[in-house]
Amino acid sequence: MTARRIALLGVAHVHAEGYAAWLSVQADVEVIGFAEDDPEVAQDFEATTGLQWRPLPGLLAARPHGVIVCGETVQHRTHVEGAARAGAHVLCEKPLATTLEDAQALLDACTRAGVTLHTAFPVRYSPAVRQLRAHIQGGDLGDLLAYSGVNHSVSPDHERAWFSDLALAGGGAGMDHIIHLADLLHHLGERVQSIHARLIPVPAWTIPGHEQTDAAGLVTLKLASGAVATVDCSWSRPRAYPRWGHLKLDVTGTAGMRSLDAFAEHLSVTTGQGRRWAGYGADLNAAMLRDFLTVCGGGEAGLLASGQDGLEALRVVLAAYESERAGRVVELSADADAAAR
């Protein structure tokens, strides 16, 4: 098999280094380099990964089979549109964009170019998620009544300051964490009809200069199935917490309940440097990247989320922010629900 040429466009995201490390040891992959506007970030990434920092036009002129977009969210449109013009398939970090207009532009650019756009939602690959989805689709829980989701983490701003910059990220913990559960609900067959959200800004002393960035929130969703869902999202974990965070979902139906913890498989390791949880479960990022490489080779996408999936998840998140600003329930349009189907 001919090696698939892969490039990274932007490396400011905390997942970029892990993606690069995994791709670099695959026998059928040639990572041809990365583009990055920030020289300091680029030099650090080059030193850490050994990959070549290249100007964006030259990198795309090398005709990669696929690109992985890992820059600040506000840069995604520029990178995805450039990749599409170069004929490369795209895996884009979530959220796709900071606005629905930009997210739709990404989809349109890839459609015009005849390439695929995918959104990085690795939680779809969790064995616990697959099992829960099978229970729901098989009717094991009866009529679904309620979902209760939790997505907490350490604030990522101490690794990448841009996560707390509204101009670059489009939001704080809500943008970072609601979106995973929004996609998970969609993946389980649900459609959101209305949203009520409270998103709380960080204390002024926590991240000086970003006092309007939300660090915690509670979102209530009314679903087309008649069920309701709540999402508890926050950057509430202290930096000494033994892992970055977690994602959990409880589902209640008329015939039973099921719970999932996407990162439950871990060992507690205590050393002189403190305590940490070492995961031993499935590598969800690796599973997602394998699917993307299959797409780059002309195969089927498997569980890989589409660009449309990414847009619909973003629609839910932006409606949550609108609800917070307006202090009321926000209805999602019937046209949006029809598009999602």
From TrEMBL:
<dbReference type="InterPro" id="IPR051450">
    <property type="entry name" value="Gfo/Idh/MocA_Oxidoreductases"/>
</dbReference>
<dbReference type="InterPro" id="IPR000683">
    <property type="entry name" value="Gfo/Idh/MocA-like_OxRdtase_N"/>
</dbReference>
<dbReference type="InterPro" id="IPR055170">
    <property type="entry name" value="GFO_IDH_MocA-like_dom"/>
</dbReference>
<protein>
    <submittedName>
        <fullName>Gfo/Idh/MocA family oxidoreductase</fullName>
    </submittedName>
</protein>
<dbReference type="InterPro" id="IPR036291">
    <property type="entry name" value="NAD(P)-bd_dom_sf"/>
</dbReference>
<dbReference type="GO" id="GO:0000166">
    <property type="term" value="F:nucleotide binding"/>
</dbReference>
<dbReference type="Pfam" id="PF01408">
    <property type="entry name" value="GFO_IDH_MocA"/>
</dbReference>
<dbReference type="Pfam" id="PF22725">
    <property type="entry name" value="GFO_IDH_MocA_C3"/>
</dbReference>
<feature type="domain" description="Gfo/Idh/MocA-like oxidoreductase N-terminal">
    <location>
        <begin position="5"/>
        <end position="120"/>
    </location>
</feature>
<feature type="domain" description="GFO/IDH/MocA-like oxidoreductase">
    <location>
        <begin position="129"/>
        <end position="257"/>
    </location>
</feature>
